[in-house]
Amino acid sequence: MSNILNTLKELCVLPGPSGREDRVREYIKAKAAPYADEILTDNMGNLLVHVKGERKTDKKLMLAAHMDEVGLIINYITDEGYLKFDFLGSVDRRVVIGKRVFVGETAIPGIIGQKPMHLMSGDEKNRIPKLTDMYIDIGLSSKEQAQEMVSLGDFAVFDPSISEFGEGFIKAKAIDDRIGCAIMLELLKASPVEAWFVFTVQEEVGLRGAQVAANRLQPDIALILEGTTAADLPSQAGAAKVCIPGKGPVVPFMDGATIYNQELYKAITAVADKEGIAWQTKTYISGGTDASAIQRSGAGAKVAGIAAAVRYIHSPSCVACINDFEDIYKLVKAYMGTL
Questions:
Q1: H-helix or E-strand containing 222?
Q2: What is the reported pTM?
Q3: Are 313 and 173 in contact (CB under 8 A)?
Q4: How far apart are CA 10 and CA 111, in angstroms?
Q5: Homologous superfamily (CATH) for 2-69+173-336
Q6: pLDDT tens digits for 200-244?
Q7: Domain boundaries in the chain?
Q8: What is the rounded average pLDDT of the residues 255-259?
Q9: DSSP assignment, residue 317?
């Protein structure tokens, strides 16, 4: 467990919003190199790691996890030195006000702000803040000062501070999908079978990297390791909870972009039952993963998803249960051994 957890922490600290995954890729490449038989970086920036494993199979196997995280991109600098921005990926505007961010390669600290509530009209107080009302305050007083430090197109990421709390929970940015990356890095050290471990880019803005990588490899089977939406909150009941951190790997039968292969779904859950690994499925159809792009690549691929349940996903403070990480690792490795 400590290897996966430590790797996750190191990955979550790194900045890697969609289109700016360089530092994450460099870290993963260095970690994977001693165990890889071949490493490729394609024109999109995907990292493809080939491991011969303990034996060959008659099916080409691909495992995928995306390196990118949701973030921000600077699109305007005001006369007063504030930075206007848009989101990279889907972010709930309600959760970012007052949050600390770091801008650009030099990690300039800033705070996301908006008009003080004391100056808002009744209507403004009661509605979700508009993106156009927000800005990043980097503590400067003029456009000229800001332009010396920030350029249009620079990215920003949420505060990378990490904490463990409660009964085995962890809070960090980018658990979606650095947890998939961390588990794959552990799996490739001793893969039961030959496989391509693919660390994709730009998942959060349209599954772009996975499409390119899958068209190149044309796998028969693809396992997508992810973080997925948990909603086990006081306001939710029954199926609306979706999935629950601490209840084991999430094996979905469908999401908003993919109907997962029924044969793989049954095989993976059967392995979980045989190995005594508690598992769950999603009870609400929404969202999407790289599985959608991979499934439709080339002549088509059979796809399955295995995910960690994550509260407050796509926010500065994602929350997951540490015990789930080891169970995902065990389940994926056990299933790979059946191929």
A1: strand 221-229
A2: 0.95
A3: no
A4: 23
A5: Zn peptidases (3.40.630.10)
A6: 999 999 999 999 999 999 999 999 999 999 999 999 999 999 999
A7: 2-69+173-336, 71-158
A8: 94
A9: S
Q: Could you report the per-residue pLDDT of 147-164, keeping only the tens digit for each? A: 999 999 999 999 999 999
- Angstrom CA distances, 152 to 78, 83, 84, 104, stand at 12, 9, 9, 10
Burial class (CB in 10 A: 0-12, 13-18, 19+), 279: buried
**What's the CA gap between 288 and 109, in Å, rounded?**
32
Phi, psi of 240 (to 5 degrees): -70, -15
Fold agreement between 2-69+173-336 and 71-158 = no
- A 10 A CB-CB count for 9 gives 16
Helix (H) or strand (E) holding 325: helix 322-336
The values of phi and psi at residue 101, to 5°, are -130, 165
Q: Which residues are catalytic?
A: 203
User: Which of the four CATH numbers 2.60.40.420, 3.40.50.11720, 2.40.30.40, 1.25.40.10 does domain 71-158 have?
Assistant: 2.40.30.40
